[in-house]
Amino acid sequence: MEYKWLVLLLIVSGTALMLLVLHGTPLGDLIHQRIPDRPRRRLFVATASFFLTFAGVRGVVYCITHSIPPFHFVTMEGRHVHHLVFGILILLGVGYSWLAEIGVGAGPSSLLASRLLSILYGVGAALTLDEFALWLNLRDVYWSPQGRESIDAVILFGALLAGGAWGAPLLSSKSDKTSGKS
């Protein structure tokens, strides 16, 4: 098995597992009940997949750099393909899907598509931002001190996602009107 397919298999299986948990267990119903606002629910799912993917990617890269099988760098024609490439492709697919208004309706299939696209958005963002230092320095600085720029980018974007999922009601003027406070 070529190792580029292992990366794809990990992304697909991780996404399928999260989707199964959200759509096939009581946890999905609980999240649906506790977070009735659909955009906040999508932000919550994207946040969870973002942080889980980031942790998983860091673990896989650690295994690769310490020669722990079965993980190896993905290469095509002798060129190392960084995981940000997969992240960018996923983000392009999710963006196109949302432009085409996939997963924005009210039916059960739309709920499934909405959850899937939210998971993939978190996965794509994590894969891409985990190599943010590569964008900035135009060379691989993953484990060097300059690689800290990727960690900073992940923390900042993760905070933005989490703030959107959990912090929006705190800042909403709607909640001020319903509570009687101004």
Topology:
Blueprint: H1 3-24, H2 26-34, H3 38-65, E1 75-76, E2 79-80, H4 83-99, H5 108-129, H6 132-137, H7 148-171, H8 173-179
Antiparallel strand pairs: 1-2
Give the key terms.
single chain, 182 residues, mainly alpha, two-stranded antiparallel ribbon, 2% strand, globular, disordered C terminus
What would your notes on this structure say?
The chain is mainly alpha-helical and 182 residues long. It has one domain (3-167). The protein is built from 8 helices and 2 strands; from the N terminus they run αααββααααα. It has helices spanning 3-24, 26-34, 38-65, 83-99, 108-129, 132-137, 148-171, 173-179; strands at 75-76, 79-80. A two-stranded antiparallel ribbon has the order 1-2. A hairpin with a 2-residue loop joins strand 1 and strand 2 (79-80). The longest helix is centred in the first third of the chain and has 28 residues, at 38-65. It starts with a helix and ends with a helix. The model is unreliable at 175-182 (pLDDT under 50).
